[in-house]
Amino acid sequence: MLRASLALALLALCGSAAATTYTQTYSTIQPATYTVSLGFNISGTVAPDPTPCTSFNTATSTCLPQVSVPDKDSVIITYSGPVTEGNTISIMTCFSNSSSMDRAWRKANAIIGKDKQCNVEKPMVKGLPTGEGTYTWTPGPNTPQSSYSIQVLEVVAGSNPTTYAAMGRSTGFFQIIPIDSRPSWLLGVVGGMCAVGPLTLAGFFVWEKMLKKEA
User: Fold this and answer.
1) Residues 170/149, Cβ–Cβ less than 8 Å
2) How high is the pLDDT of residue 60?
């Protein structure tokens, strides 16, 4: 009985998830009514009014602000737009076109709720007040090494599926320099297992054949 109840509950949950359809496109909230500016805390020094690079060599990214995860650098996001009581602000990273190329899991979509290039389903923060605000984002060890911009979306209160009233996006891009959070001892163990594993498997097959011959 318990298993049957759990199965029915799971089916109901999956059914409700499948029934959620997103249709709102970015064109419905254009032109952008929010301005988004960025500051960078690099190695403890805050740039007063940096101008993110808007055109860069994708091979070297030489002109991009470099945000280092190992050094705990951060991005200071300032947004400004109309005040709407009840609505809230969500902030998310957007991969640049070069960082999205040939990666289906980062594919851009004109339908806001399906836009994977801008991580709409996984904002870095949500529930911020509309109008003016500042949020400081310190990338974590799982942040992919990519070039990014920042997008702000105003979420309509109580909407289901989620709908949006306004948007804004930063100018230019910055790059994340990641950290390898795996400890060196773990890398050594994995490397050792990879080296020994095939030899162990080959030895097992030889031993198995010898047993069959003796039988």
Assistant:
1) yes
2) 58
Cα→Cα distances 110→27, 114, 130, 214, Å: 8, 8, 23, 68
Distance set, CA 119 to CA 73, 116, 135, 148, 195 (Å): 21, 5, 17, 11, 38
CB atoms within 10 A of CB 90: 18
Distance between terminal CA atoms of the chain? 50
Return the H-helix or E-strand segment holding 184: helix 184-214
3-state secondary structure 144-168: CCCEEEEEEEEECCCCCCCCEEEEE
Say how far apart CA 101 and CA 104 lie, in whole Å. Answer: 8
- Nearest CA-CA partner of 178 in 88, 81, 99: 99
| Digit-coded pLDDT (tens) for 21-70 | 899 999 999 999 999 999 999 988 887 655 667 666 655 566 788 899 99
Left, alpha or beta for 72 (phi > 0: left; psi -120 to 50: alpha)?
left
Which tens digits make up the pLDDT trace of 141-187? 999 999 999 999 999 999 999 999 999 999 888 999 987 644 444 44
Distance CA 84, CA 161 (A): 19
pTM: 0.73
